[in-house]
Amino acid sequence: MKNKINLIQGDITEIVVDAIVNAANSSLLGGSGVDGAIHRIGGKKILEECQKIKAKQGGCKVGNAVITTAGNLFAKYVIHTVGPRWIDGKHNESELLKQCYLNSFKLALENGVKSISFPNISTGVYKFPKDKAAEIAVNTIKNCIQNEIQIEKVNIVCYENENYQIYRTLLEKL
Ligand code: AR6
């Protein structure tokens, strides 16, 4: 199980996988951070699909996920999930972050995805404490891939060194 998890420091848009997870917002219409990078490099096809989903179901709730194709990215799909904005830890933030990973995996499995890259959801603009977020991510990913044969590789892609070091320590303990 452990050897399926791959820790990478870098830009998630540059890594070849079946599905890239995006840390989106409820509008699904793009933003800054990793969302900005995915839409910038993926091109307008992704935005058009997001607009269609928004028209149909009014966007995406916090903790949920939707899937589109990946435009010009080196992937088949982008799974857009909406992380919780950190308030004080008493607003269900941890459970909602866990749901982001669970619902992303659910869509990945439904769509035959074998390899998937996750960014550090909610730890940028949404200010989720990085160590707490990493613990939730690792535990949830671990549970999702245990006894799951379809998923061959899960990349945890850290853009910043601080997150990378937190994950390195956590993954060493697995
Ligand atoms: N590749 C991988 N990780 C990245 C990249 C990249 N190219 N760019 C940034 N990160 P954030 P959030 C990291 O702010 O906190 C957007 O405006 C970044 O260092 O992208 O979930 C959305 O539209 C951080 O560790 O997402 C929403 O409005 C992590 O990605 C809101 O921000 C997440 O930071 C979502 O906030």
UniProtKB/TrEMBL annotation:
The lineage of its organism: Bacteria, Pseudomonadati, Pseudomonadota, Betaproteobacteria, Neisseriales. SUPFAM superfamilies: Macro domain-like (SSF52949). PANTHER family: GANGLIOSIDE INDUCED DIFFERENTIATION ASSOCIATED PROTEIN 2-RELATED (PTHR11106), MACRO DOMAIN-CONTAINING PROTEIN (PTHR11106:SF27). Gene3D superfamilies: Leucine Aminopeptidase, subunit E, domain 1 (3.40.220.10). Residues 1-174 form the Macro domain. This is O-acetyl-ADP-ribose deacetylase. Pfam families: Macro (PF01661). InterPro entries: Macro_dom, Macro_dom-like.
